[in-house]
Amino acid sequence: MKIHLFYSFLSKNSFLLPLAIIGLTIVMLSLTLLPAETFAHNDLWTYDKIGHLLLFGSWTYVLGLYHDIRWKTPTNLWVICLIGIGFGLMVEVLQHLLPLNRHGDWADLATDILGCLLAIWALKKTIPNK
Questions:
Q1: Domain that residue 6 falls in
Q2: What stretch of H or E contains 47?
Q3: pLDDT tens string 80-124
Q4: pLDDT per residue as tens digits for the range 38-66
Q5: Going by C-beta distance under 8 Å and a sequence separation of 6 or more, which residues neighbour residue 53?
Q6: For residue 69, what pLDDT band results from cuts at 50, 70 and 90?
Q7: Of 66, 107, 119, 130, whose CB is crowded by the most CB atoms within 10 A?
Q8: How far apart are CA 65 and CA 80, in angstroms?
Q9: Which segments of the protein form a coiled coil according to its record (predicted)?
Q10: Contacts of 55 (CB under 8 A, 6+ apart)
Q11: Distance of alpha carbon 14 from alpha carbon 18, whole angstroms
């Protein structure tokens, strides 16, 4: 019941979803593409994989909610998942290519994918049947 209240709230306040997507995108790109020295002495950085899981999962979840609320056509959750995975892949490639003292990591990409898959599971629980 609480999930439907959450969905209903976001349906009535759908302007929040693009703001959340933009905000999460800025945070994700900042955390993943700033030079490594920026975070070298931060204990939070030791939780890298959890951060990837939560950030990419949250981003994919909000994107799926936005699509379902904004467009009244059925949302293909696997396309939403692939967009999230593509974003994660793009970040890892950029880390490898840009001179940021960063490197792309297969384990990070695997964690991004897991976050996207968990987001799809959560979306299936959140989006009401139409």
A1: 2-126
A2: none
A3: 999 999 999 999 999 989 887 788 889 999 999 999 999 999 999
A4: 655 555 555 778 989 999 999 999 999 99
A5: 111, 112, 114, 115, 118
A6: very high
A7: 119
A8: 10
A9: none
A10: 24, 27, 28, 31, 115
A11: 8
Q: What share of the chain is helix, strand, coil (3-state, %, to 5)?
A: 80, 0, 20
CA distance to 12, 51, 81, 91, per residue, from 29 (Å): 29, 12, 18, 8
101 CB-near residues (< 8 Å, 6+ apart):
35, 36, 37
The pTM of this model reads 0.89
CA distance 62 to 87: 14
The structure tokens 């693009």 sit at 18
The number of domains in the chain is 1
3-state secondary structure of 87: helix
